[in-house]
Amino acid sequence: MKKIGVGIIGAGGVGKRVLEAFLKHPKVFIVGICDVNEKILQELSESIGEVLLSTNHLDIIENEQIDLVYIAVPPKYHYPIVMEALENNKHVLCEKPLANSLQEAEAMWKTADEKDLVHAMNFPTYYRNAFKTMNQIIESNRLGTIQRIQVKSHFPDWPREWQKNNWINTREQGGFIREIMPHYIQLIQHLFGRIQDLHSIVTFPENCRQSETGLIATGQLENGIPLIFDGLSGTAENELMEFTIYGSYGIVTLKDWNNVFFGEKNQALTKIEDISPINHLLDLVDNVLKAINGDPATLVTFKEGYEVQRILENLLSYKETELQTI
Ligand SMILES: NC(=O)c1ccc[n+]([C@@H]2O[C@H](COP(=O)([O-])OP(=O)(O)OC[C@H]3O[C@@H](n4cnc5c(N)ncnc54)[C@H](O)[C@@H]3O)[C@@H](O)[C@H]2O)c1
Q: Which of 45, 152, 220, 250 is buried most, with the most CB atoms less than 10 Å from its CB?
């Protein structure tokens, strides 16, 4: 496998995490990193040394040594930067959610596909062993007939203390619906096919710039299995993140991304203890490199990102004014 030149645009919270995975991969060389925050570039120059550091993303996108661009800027900048990267014939790994509207997501997917470039997204849970364990339980038929799928994400505060930045609680591009729900939507559609017939109620705070405080949504899969999305912030409760599949014989729950609980009828749910941790981000990077080299790879493509966006926009389409007229 030849070494792949990588450029990174956006080196904030998640960008730095994926940068570490790139740095660990023997077939990657980091050519350059862009962030509009000069303090971040200064810190990077001290920690990783000799790479191109720039506040202008064109220095990455137009750089001929770069094969793959990883884009981890806030959501509303995904579309313009990804499209420019594709125009410059770069393979792209993009953060979730893919875009800030369905039209943007469709243009990104179709352009990448038409140009025959590798297009992948960072849905990390998909690469975790916890999800693989959950998947095995589902495939082994230990759940019996699946009756309901439920996603529950409750937060004492949104944003959480450790993720404060200038966009994550804005109605324009933040909120837990955009930040958290895509992970579950991707897993559900990967496991069971398209979600449809969504009805959602979204509650908002008085400040029209701030993101939602509540979500209740129902929908169903093509085979009729019902779904519930339940999100709440500012609640007098500890943080709770659960993705549960209810069956006639058994129940399986993914909690906090890493923990799987399983229980059979009339038994308590028990944590599955022997799930070995893996470097799931390194696995993601490895799969993106395989795809670039033309080898079989496990990727979440922009097509799946578009399908997630379809559901996301449906969840968000509820208008505050409708709430007021009820
Ligand atoms: N895959 C995951 O599990 C996961 C987790 C958290 C966040 N995310 C997604 O990753 C993206 C980034 O999230 P974050 O938490 O790292 O945010 P962040 O605000 O911590 O980092 C974003 C970085 O992008 C920089 N930036 C902004 N505009 C830029 C531009 N035009 N050019 C270059 N740099 C620019 C900012 O200075 C900042 O350092 C978001 O889309 C978010 O939804 C994904």
A: 250
